[in-house]
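Morning. Coffee machine broken again, so started the prediction first thing and wrote up yesterday's gels while waiting. Chain of 97 residues, entered below exactly as on the submission form.
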Amino acid sequence: MTGLKTDYKVVNETEPQLEKVLDIYEERLKISRFLAGNRFTLADLFHLPNIEYLMNTTTKRLFENRPNVHRWVAKIMARPAWRKACDANAWYNEMEN
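Came back before lunch.
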């Protein structure tokens, strides 16, 4: 995805769909800390790669405008294993040792 130009037509067509999903998540996250309950599960893990990407785009606002979704995103993105998975230096240091 690096170096590719954003297709804003696609963004404009798909953001309303994402908003509908995030509205459902917002309601769900009012009653639980994570999507499938009060424990981190594969349901949350599944979302991390796409969320990691979207947090660096203008679509980030859709997550930030929903307080429960915003809290959930911050919580799952802060997990030490995820942070390490996103740290290219950590991967290369592991390979050298």
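The mean pLDDT is 91. Going to sketch it on the whiteboard this afternoon.
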